[in-house]
Amino acid sequence: MIGERIVVVSGPTAAGKTDVAIALARRWGGELIGADSVQVYRGFDIGSAKPTREELGGIAHHLVDVIDPDEAIDAARYAAMAEAAIEDVRARGRVPIVVGGTGLWLRALLRGLVALPEPDVALRAALEAEADAIGAPALHARLASIDPRAAASIHPNDRLRIVRALEVHAQTGEPIGELRARHALGAPRHDALILLVDRSREEMATRMQMRTRAMLDRGLIDEVRALLARWGPDVRAMGSVGYHEVRTFLAGGLDEASLAPAIVRATRVYARRQRTWWGHDEGALRFELPTDEAAIMPHVEAFLAR
Question: What does the alpha-carbon distance between residue 197 and residue 273 come to, in Å, rounded to a whole number?
Answer without folding.
Answer: 15
